[in-house]
Amino acid sequence: MNEQLSAKDWLDQGLKVLASHGFTALKAEPMAKAMGVSRGSFYWHFADVSAFHAALLKHWREIAAEQIITGIEASAGDEPAIAVLLRRTFSIRLTLERAVRSWAAADPIARHAVQAIDRRRLNYVESLLAANGLPQPVAQARSQVLYWAFLGNALSDRHLPSAQQQAVIAELIRIALHPP
Asked: How crowded is the C-beta side of 158, counted as CA atoms within 13 Å?
């Protein structure tokens, strides 16, 4: 790489480092070395490591919530949006999710970012369930249950065989859409 890295290049690299090495590896010098640039490139875009951390958490939210929501909304078709969301989120590896939540356990700023994304996701899932005709209290309760299932999946090291994973996803969709 060269010295002309953008802030987004640093943020994308930060997410990779976070997912593979954890939040303690989010430091300017080792990241610059790995990217083949000087630390000056980092400090050109970020006042300090704390500013980088704040920008990284914002970037994570964009990727882990807003882009997913935009993608679900864009792919609206015959299948209910909640089914599309469940298929997508339960079919991917969630290494980054686990890393950010580990960071949140040790850092109040990361914890605040995780709490904000949890609220955003829960509200979105609840809105999808309500759009499928579930009464608000039922939509709220089911969104919480589905989100707990997502978190359990994200924090688990156990990867299910494909057939079993598909059966779990089908059951989650059934639970989500079943009339009260």
From this structure: 6
Q: How far apart are CA 33 and CA 17, in angstroms?
A: 12
Q: What is the per-residue pLDDT across 93-124, written as a single tens digit (0 to 9) for each?
A: 899 999 999 999 999 999 999 999 999 999 99
Rounded Cα distance between 24 and 177, Å, is: 41
pTM recorded for the entire structure: 0.91
Alpha helices in the chain (DSSP H): 7-21, 28-35, 39-45, 49-61, 67-74, 81-89, 95-106, 108-131, 136-155, 162-177
Positive or negative CA dihedral for 108, 113, 114, 118? positive
d(CA 168, CA 15): 29
Distance separating alpha carbons of residues 44 and 50, to the nearest angstrom: 14
- pLDDT tens digits, one per residue of 52-67: 999 999 999 999 999 9
In angstroms, the Cα distances linking 8 to 15, 45, 75, 98, 109 are 10, 9, 26, 22, 20
**Token pair belonging to 85:** 């969301």
